[in-house]
Design brief:
This protein is of the alpha/beta class. The chain has 2 domains: about 180 residues, Response regulator (Rossmann fold); about 130 residues, Response regulator (Rossmann fold). Helix content is about 45%, strand content about 20%. The strands form 2 sheets. It has a 7-stranded parallel sheet with strand order 1-12-6-5-4-2-3, sandwiched between helices. Helix 1 crosses helix 6, helix 4 packs parallel to helix 12 and helix 5 runs parallel beside helix 6. The chain is elongated.
Length: about 325
């Protein structure tokens, strides 16, 4: 069984390498027109269907160490419990192990889950396994952030909007002028590209703000600290850091602490992790663009149940995004 599956996956992989995949070129969650906010799902499609039998869901996330993905997994587990489903959640150790994530997917397909909820490391690394699952009639729910072109429904925040919100917030905090640096995620990934693009296009609307650096740090705390330290060495009069996740933002906070600049430079992260909120409460991190990962995870499993119950949902179900700082934290129960 395993040998035959690997043979099929291999054939599909070879085919995908020599033939263009049109869907990959046309689908983008950030620009997709067939979209509905998660908050409007029940009003348009009714309550979540009650299935006759308990269903099983397989889920693959990007990372089993990053707090964002742990929080998202908790939301998935809660939804599975609420909707009488079982869920198997697995992940790679790092956000660069594309081969390892594909291997997990190939093994997971053999377990014949009723639906798969996938968060790929890149836009295409899970495609061979996805095509096998689709040929078996297994619904694919694409959960935040890189996209799967052939998914049934993408569930997550719009990444370019994250960049827009961060840019407007930083511009307001620094009075519309000053030097700003961007700390990117994993180079070449959809998430990092879109978050940086959204920030760059919106910050360009503020003529007195200069982006002096844009460097990757792979979504890791230590790399974020090192990149931030290097930027501060060359630009000691920096006004703000925009970091594409909270881990790197917390690294930037440590770099500022070491340079005796803590509290003097605005630092905005992305994700809304617990550690980010602790840092905001301590007066260190300025803000996080919260994607509410627990809500995102819950929504992804709910969408899976709706699809299994026969509902035909839009291609994208967008989940909430908000800039949260010390001033509005209480509004979101933080």
């Amino acid at each position: 069984m395993k040998k035959s599956l690997l043979f099929v996956v291999g054939i599909i992989l070879i085919f995908s390498m020599v033939m263009p995949v049109a869907a990959q070129e046309t689908f983008n969650p950030d620009t997709e027109k067939d979209t509905i906010p998660y908050s409007e799902l029940e009003a348009k499609f009714g309550p979540v269907p009650k299935l006759d039998t308990k269903v099983s869901i397989g889920s693959i996330l990007k990372n089993n160490a990053n707090e964002f993905w742990l929080m998202l997994a908790e939301g998935m587990k809660k939804a599975a419990n609420d909707f009488n489903a079982s869920i198997d959640i697995q992940a790679t150790r790092t956000e660069t192990d594309t081969a390892g994530q594909l291997s997990i997917a190939e093994t997971m397909i053999q377990n014949k889950y009723n639906a798969l909820v996938l968060s790929p490391l890149t836009n295409d690394n899970l495609n061979p396994a996805v095509q096998v699952a689709k040929s078996d009639g297994i619904p694919i729910i694409n959960c935040n952030c890189e996209y799967i072109a052939d998914c049934d429904t993408f569930v997550g925040g719009l990444q370019i909007e994250i960049g827009h919100k961060a840019a407007d917030y930083i511009a307001e905090k620094i009075g519309g002028k000053g030097k700003v640096a961007i700390i990117e995620g994993v180079p070449g990934t959809f998430t990092s590209i879109q978050r940086v693009a959204g920030f760059s296009e919106r910050i360009a609307q503020y003529p007195d703000i200069e982006v002096v650096a844009s460097q990757p740090a792979d979504y890791e705390v230590e790399k974020g600290m090192n990149v931030a330290s290097n930027i501060l060495t060359t630009t000691p009069d920096l006004a703000a850091f925009y970091c594409c996740n909270d881990n790197m933002a917390l690294g930037a906070v440590e770099a500022l602490r070491a340079a005796n600049l803590l509290g003097k430079v605005v630092v905005v992260g992305v994700d809304g992790t617990g550690d980010a909120y602790k840092s905001i409460k301590a007066g260190e991190l300025t803000a996080t663009v919260d994607q509410f990962p627990e809500k995102n995870g819950y929504a992804a499993v709910e969408v899976a149940i709706r699809i299994l119950g026969g509902q035909k949902l839009p291609k994208v179900v967008s989940t909430p995004i908000e800039v949260v700082d010390a001033n509005n934290m209480a509004e979101f129960g933080k």
